[in-house]
Amino acid sequence: MRDVQLARVAEQHGVATAYEDWRGRRVAVAPDTIRHVLRALGVDPQDRDAVSAPRPGPLPPAVVVREGKAPDLVLPEGARSTVETADGSLLPFDPGLPLGVHTLHVGAGGAEYDAPLLVVPDRIEPTALGRRPRVWGLTAQVYSVRSRASWGTGDLRDLADLSDWGGRDLGADFVLVNPVHATEPVPPLEPSPYLPVSRRYSSPLYIRVEDIPEYARLDPAQREGIQRLARPLRERGRTADLLDRDAVWEAKRAALEVLFQVPRAPGREAALRTYLEREGQPLVEFATWCALAEEHGGDIRSWPAHLRDVGSQAVGEEALHRWPTVEFHRWLQWVLDEQEAQAQSTALAAGMGLGIVHDLAIGVQAGGADAWTCGDALVPGLHAGAPPDEFNRQGQDWGQPPWHPRRLAELGYAPLRQIMGHALRNAGGARVDHVMGMFRMWCVPEGAPPSEGTYVRYDHEGTVGTLALAAHTADAVLVGEDLGTVEPRVRDHLADRGILGTSVLWFEQDSEGVPRRPQEWRADCLATVATHDLPPVASFLSGEHIELRDRLGLLGRPLEEELAESEERVERWRSLLVEMGLLAADVDPVADPASVAAAMHAFLSATPARMLGVALTDMVGERRMQNQPGTSTEYPNWRIPLTNGEGEPVLVDELLADPRTVARIRRTLGPLGGGLR
User: Fold this and answer.
1) By mean pLDDT, which of 145-159, 200-214, 582-596, 623-637 is the weakest?
2) Which pLDDT does position 664 carry in this prediction?
């Protein structure tokens, strides 16, 4: 870069001027992109003073220390330092500090300074992984896994039943599910679970209405009224039609409003009050956003100006004016918390070592609840995404504002801590989507194509340390999704901290495209055949996904070249599976995908991976993708119900009732499903 001043400012503020792409080639970032990103971060790229440290005094925005390690912060000569712990105690700034979030006070040069101090685990050691050398489980999209009793989309009771079946009948240790983060309070609902309005709370779409204890206190006429709402949704839920979240939520909302008015028994009322006290002001703010969004829409950027500041007097007055609605949305989160806890307890009672493993989306909607309550900890005008890679040649723009590196640190990573606390409260673990975003995030200027972005760097000791502290507190497993363009140091750092990576069979190959043998795989990972952004085995083997991407205009090369490359990849894996004795030589992958899926999962069993995941879609023979990256309305992303290879719906309460399904599951699991009856 010829603009030396711009390069210096960019380096000072963690904005990359060049990066290495997925092929290992160095790519220079356009100066205009760098300027746009700097301005979004609040930095004037022409200001020579911007090269100096952005924070006065001897302290960084946050101080992060690993447990038992000496602080590496160098204070000015003669400076005084004291640590005020979370419980108000005063301690010296030395290696004996307890885990947690504290405040560091420093006196230097006649002035007083303070900064958040995080003491985090050096490495997490979840009890469940210590008891077993390996765990395996199911991966599923909860909304797609329906039952005869659910209201057209899968809910938390369906998750509990799936976990019970997986633990008792299959011997599984966990169920990894899609994010169940909060969605809009009124239709239309965003179908993507990875584009929520808040990651600090959950979506009431997943509530099983009849499991709320107050349902039993309704009179017969009221119960019949609720069942009239449910019946047409249940009928649709027994078909292979696309999921209709809006219709489901409209019906559930009407039923939940009835139940909210039912007097609660004293013990129930006390439990609610305890929950509300624990959640405090953050829940009030979220519920207030929901109440305001019902009138003004789900994007705060279109709200009246006086309501865009969460701390304003006008917002407080509006909250009081709408207090019954605010209370309703607080109550919904309590109901969700109870049903999530029940799903986890059911999973553990069924013998699972971990139980539910939640997925943590990488970000939130730019105008949603978290964008309102987190304030300037998020960066407007930038979208998080990913640069072009092998499977997304045009790059990705997720439409989500990234964290502001300095402001997040100044808050002691509190927003991230709250998100992790919620994710792990009723779970045995969490998968962190795009965990590379804890180190650096691909940021795209609003309105620019995804390829015209650059990386913004974070203090990974703070971000990863926050993840580790939350996991240690909950004694939970953490899995980082580290696929795509990844710096080598990222995987090394995560492994050192006890955070597992993600290894996907289709991606495990050398630079020449030769599949890696089992002994070449890493141990510290969750190993799967595919992900929610890839097609099920049957579709991948046939090349259907390539033809779909061609129809959608997503290919960067001619169709014939893409198909040839995919066929070569499939053939290389077929040959290795045959060589290892896992697949008969005469099996045609296109004609018999079930045999190939079984061989692939047997292959995963031969790797040293600490965790193995088997997609429910592959267990039942599903062919359709849940999500096609690079599309919005062009493909019915996240609206595909669970079906078998013939396109027939598969309900959770029928998983072991249909002989064809049982045979398919038994075949796919092979040695993993040794307990299958």
Assistant:
1) 623-637
2) 79
* Cβ(80)–Cβ(107) below 8 Å: yes
Q: Is 324 exposed, middle or buried (0-12, 13-18, 19+ CB in 10 A)?
A: exposed
Question: How far, in Å, CA of 315 to CA of 643, rounded?
Answer: 46
Over its C-alpha atoms, the chain yields an Rg (Å, rounded) of 25
Q: Is the CB of residue 41 less than 8 Å from the CB of residue 407?
A: no
Burial class (CB in 10 A: 0-12, 13-18, 19+), 8: middle
pLDDT of residue 417: 98
Burial of 511 (0-12, 13-18, 19+ CB in 10 A): exposed
Contact 80, 39 (CB under 8 A): no
Closest CA to 372 of 311, 423, 448: 311
Cβ neighbours of residue 237 under 8 Å, at least 6 residues apart? 146, 148, 150, 151, 152, 153, 641, 649, 651
Q: What is the pLDDT of residue 594?
A: 94
> Do residues 26 and 20 lie in contact, with contact meaning Cβ atoms separated by under 8 Å?
yes
From the list 3, 4, 12, 2, the residue with the least C-alpha distance to 43 is 12
For the segment 192-202, the average pLDDT, to the nearest whole number, is: 97
Band (192; pLDDT cuts 50, 70, 90): very high
Mean pLDDT of 437-457: 97
Indicate the pLDDT class of residue 54, thresholds 50, 70 and 90.
low
Closest CA to 435 of 468, 389, 476: 468
CA distances for 60 relative to 11, 103, 465, angstroms? 16, 13, 16
Q: Which of 499, 425, 416, 429 is nearest to 122 (CA)?
A: 499
User: 611: burial class by Cβ within 10 Å (0-12, 13-18, 19+)?
Assistant: buried
- Whether omega before 188 lies within 30 degrees of 0, making that bond cis, reads yes
Quick one: tokens of 327?
A: 């209370």
Residues 6+ apart with CB under 8 A from 452: 30, 33, 444, 445
The pLDDT, as a whole number, for residue 394 is 80
> For 237-312, where are the alpha helices, taking DSSP H only?
245-260, 266-296
Which amino acid is it at 333?
Answer: Q
- At a CB cut-off of 8 Å and minimum separation 6, what does 475 contact? 126, 127, 128
Taking the alpha carbons at both ends of the chain, their separation in whole angstroms is 65
Give which of 530, 160, 503 is closest to 352, Cα–Cα. Answer: 160
The structure tokens listed for 227 are 């069942």
What pLDDT is recorded for position 554? Answer: 87
CA nearest to 83, candidates 66, 74, 95: 95
Tracing tokens 């609003």 back to the chain, one arrives at: 446
For 52-61, give one letter per residue: b (16+ CB within 10 A) or e: eeeeeebbbb
Are 495 and 122 in contact, with CB atoms under 8 Å apart? no
Pairing state between β 63-66 and 111-120: parallel
Q: Give, for 443, the enclosing helix (H) or strand (E).
A: strand 440-445
> CA 386 → CA 367, 394, 429, 440, 509, distances in Å?
21, 9, 25, 11, 21
60 pLDDT higher than 50: yes
Is the model's pLDDT at 675 over the cut of 50?
A: no
Residue 70 is classified by DSSP as: P
Least confident of 126-130, 238-242, 352-356: 126-130
DSSP sequence for 131-198? H-S-EEEEEE-GGG---SSSSSS--HHHHHHHHHHIIIII---EEEE---EE--SSSSPP--TTS-SE
CA–CA distance, 387 with 454 (Å, rounded to integer): 8
Which two tokens mark 378? 């998020």
Backbone angles phi, psi at 474, to 5 degrees: -90, 0
Residue 271 CA to residue 414 CA, distance in Å, equals 26
